[in-house]
UniProtKB/TrEMBL annotation:
Residues 89-208 form the Transposable element P transposase-like GTP-binding insertion domain. It comes from the Eukaryota. InterPro entries: TNP-like_GBD, TNP-like_RNaseH_C, TNP-like_RNaseH_N. This is THAP domain-containing protein 9. Pfam families: TNP-like_GBD (PF21788), TNP-like_RNaseH_C (PF21789), TNP-like_RNaseH_N (PF21787). It comes from Aphis craccivora.
């Protein structure tokens, strides 16, 4: 399970498909895999409603809480358990989409508001510095990049929660009642870290499961799942509404991961290998075959040609700005590796520079903004904290590498 081998086993050219037909196709794939000597531990899919219905037809049961979930179905040949694993990346994006579309959710501790995240972006623009988070215009206006996982992960992250808590602690305007929003961001971040472990050396929530820590992780992660079941929208529980997909999907994925680990316990699986990233990367390669600037979905002939060339001839690499990132050298490529000579770096800036007056006006505007910010004691305190953090980071790095610099910077 921790290996990097992966290979497409089939494709079905269909515009729309029902859950019943899809269930039969899953059974067919399981039968052929069994005949080839492969042991199938799980089936991964995204959050489409047809996929959830498919798993119900195969034998999974979705209850009203974590304990009532049956996250597996019987293999059609040997009756072993095959686990249903919703893709963690899609569930993360659905969590972001749910908050972004509805703007306000309710928890037992208060209101979770998208407005608080947008306020972080506005205040960082005014300060011209960031509170150690990644929030940018692309994160706030997420509908333009709603397929990119990194934007969802950086939005609902612990760094966002830390920023909200810090601004609340210094009585920053517009950040009075942000505890519930910070709690929601932190819960989603911790669950995603757990479902996205990639290395046995990872620590904290990214640590894989071992015999020594499985009880501890269950005591930490399962209460986070139960927290999601308490979320409400307009007075009704979110898990009973049409917006329930990310809650149900995360709960099933967590239960499947614990169940697979308990059944194995010879090797601790890396949960990121159960994700749908490999399929997304394959689709990205197929699109890349016909040009990075061609957004058109390939037709049947183009798809078959791309599949042949990906498997037999050309090593097609995905763009770095795809929907998901590749963290390993994917062996699903060509039988022969082609290495092209690197192009020389072109000039990143035009040769014509701004004239002196434009340059002076830009500098004057920045100085005016800085003076306005310093007139507010709270804004000044926030900016001073950011600069103090940056300076400490620089000193720590210099302290590791440069003895003469350390003697000049640090007090004896």
């Amino acid at each position: 399970l921790n290996g990097k081998w992966k290979l497409p086993v089939g494709y079905f050219l269909q515009n729309k498909i029902t859950a019943t037909v899809q269930a039969e196709l899953v059974k067919s794939a399981l039968n052929h895999s069994h005949k080839s000597g492969l042991k199938v531990w799980g089936v991964t899919c995204d959050g489409a409603y047809a996929n959830l219905s498919t798993m119900k037809i195969l034998g999974c049961k979705i209850g009203d809480n974590y304990d009532e979930i049956q996250c597996w179905f019987n293999h059609p040949i040997d009756n072993t358990r095959v686990y249903y694993i919703p893709d963690a990346c899609h569930m993360l994006k659905l969590a972001r989409n749910t908050l972004g579309n509805n703007h306000v959710l309710e928890s037992n501790n208060g209101f979770i508001k998208w407005e608080h995240i947008a306020d972080i972006y506005d205040e960082q623009n005014k300060l011209t510095l960031k509170f150690a988070n990644k929030i940018s215009m692309a994160h706030v206006h997420w509908t333009n990049n709603k397929m990119k996982v990194k934007y969802a992960a950086q939005t609902l992250s612990s760094s966002t929660a830390d920023t909200l808590e810090y601004l609340s602690s210094i009585k920053y305007p517009r950040f009075n009642n942000v505890a519930s929003t910070a709690e929601f961001c932190r819960v989603i971040d911790r669950i995603f870290d757990f479902l996205n472990s990639k290395s046995k050396f990872s620590k904290g929530y990214k640590s894989p499961i071992f015999k020594s820590n499985i009880i501890t992780l269950e005591n930490i992660i399962i209460p986070l799942i139960k927290y999601l079941y308490t979320l409400k929208f307009k007075g009704s529980f979110l898990y009973t509404s049409a917006k329930k997909t990310f809650i149900i999907g995360i709960a099933i994925a967590v239960k499947s991961m614990f169940s697979i680990t308990r059944e194995l316990f010879v090797v601790s699986p890396y949960f990121s290998y159960f994700s749908q990233d490999h399929l997304e990367i394959l689709f990205g390669r197929i699109r890349q075959k016909f040009g990075a600037n061609n957004p058109v979905v390939p037709n049947v002939t183009q798809f078959k040609t791309a599949m042949k060339q990906i498997l037999l001839k050309n090593s097609i690499k995905c763009r770095t700005n795809g929907n998901c990132n590749s963290f390993d050298d994917d062996p699903v490529g060509s039988l022969f590796e082609y290495k092209w000579a690197k192009k020389k770096n072109r000039e990143e800036f035009p040769t014509q520079s701004l004239n002196h007056n434009d340059d002076y006006n830009i500098m004057q505007n920045k100085l005016d903004l800085l003076n306005n910010l310093q007139s507010s004691s709270i804004c000044y305190e926030a900016k001073r904290s950011i600069l103090y953090y940056i300076a400490g980071y620089i000193v720590r790095k210099i302290n590791l590498n440069c003895e003469s610099c350390k003697e000049s910077l640090l007090l004896q």
